[in-house]
Amino acid sequence: MNIENLPECIRIQSDSFKTCLYSVIERTKINWDLPLLSHYTRHGIDHSERITDAIGKLLGEYSDLLNDHERFILLSAVYLHDIGMQAPVYAGLPKKTKYNLEEKEKIRENHHEASAKMILESISSESKFSLGLELCKDYADFIATVSKYHRKLDIKELKDTSFDSKEIRLKLLSSILRLGDALDADHRRVNMEILNLRNIPVESKFHWWFHYYVQSVDIEKGKITLYYRFPSEYKDNSLVNFFQDQIYERISRQFIEVYDILDSYGIRLYRKVVSGDVNYVTEGVLELVPGELSDYIEKEKYKRDERAEQLSKTTGVTWYLDGIAFSDDKIVKKKIDTIMELMKKGRNKEAAEVIVSCRALVMSPKDKLTFCLISGNCLYILGMLDDANKYYEDVLELSRRKDLQEMFLSEMLFFQGAAFGNIGLIYRAKGDLDEALKYHNYALKIHRETGYRQGEASNLGNMGVIYSDKGDLEEALKYHNYALKIHREIGYRQGEANDLGNIGLIYHYKGDLEEALKYHNEALTIHREIGYRQGEASDLGNIGLIYSDKGDDDEALKYHNDALTIDRETGYRQGEASQLGNIGLIYRAKGDL
Fold this sequence. Notes:
By secondary structure, this protein is mainly alpha-helical.
């Protein structure tokens, strides 16, 4: 790059700074001659030049915003911020000729910190390598800091400073670099010919195609617009929407992290990233997603949805995992996956320990929303109601942020609905039924506004349970019938069975045992048809209680034993304990103390 042709807003005036920057650029070229992590997208000299171009467009209207010191620091960081990807020892790995995939991922995850370490070490008297900073050592610490904060870390913790009576606004410079880095997101980040020659993990291939289908990222008068390109074969294919959503979310997430900081320094940007047109390219010009990647995407989406649905069934609280399967923060993704797997196995105390270990992690807003919702659910199940409520309140606070709502309105409303409903469950567990009813009404209103009928039915059912607790059986019956109607309309048979079971309980409370038996048998039929064994066991237990009240202890004992067998087979210890207690009551009634 000819630094004399830089945009005016970042053009350096000082000859000494020009000399230093030339030196940095030349050393960067040498250091990137042989990229170490070749299965990742491009991070070399061409990446830095595109970042410079993006920054020039972002700051085009602010030619006097940065002083010469800041321009030099920013441009040097643009060229050096990824250099840590070339030096595994600075990521805490031993020096050797070959690294496995796990080690390479560690290098990628820690490269921002490794880059900062390298920059500082390069100017020491004992250094055996050069990054071109020998003539400007006084600025190395600033360059290292801006490089370090180009990803993951919380920029807001930085403090602005000065040098030679010139202000050095580290928060501003780090924010500009972070956004400029994110905006180099188009097809130039990847070389598909290289990809076809290498056997790389399918997770990495996802990131290559993420860039491959971005035609361009346009920046004009503060507005960021994404343009996409797809093979003509993909018209009306769900993959188009999937990749568009992932691209939009990834760039929007980085934009949200720095928007307020840039705004506080007077950089006015359009508040929302815009999705532009899709260009369908003539057949055969663009490569199609390989089968293994399509399978990976479908598997991850299915696994996420199935896991959330299954846990919602078994725990009674709402789960939402959208986006986590494809989060580019591998550490956060791994932690959340671990929590979910432990909870799926009923190892909730271990899951809570993982939650505690995540407190120091810096997360993107959407990842944090998912983490807080999951953490609240785990602690609720463990009976730690006040701690659970704090996490749900964090969900509400985050989801009300104006910037997040402007980018991801539907997701934010979903998180709010889930949190409100789950807080309602907490108040019911505490015995505060009026407060519980209030929160379920909040959730119900959101689900109706967004057209999420399954959430609407779930909250109606929960409100029915609360009215049962209050002794208002007719009102409870009304709400359970509302829920039943919706579940039947949307074809959600698990919800239908739950409603039938709850209606059966109300008739049991009213003393109408035959009507209660009818509803529990209907629920039992559905649970057996869909293979939900925990629900089957619950229905059997409820039927057993009805036979006890009818005075048929032997029939009751048969149903409770059948339920006990299923609870033991499925490992549902809470149900097992309940059935053992009910069986004990029957033997007591029979006089067999």
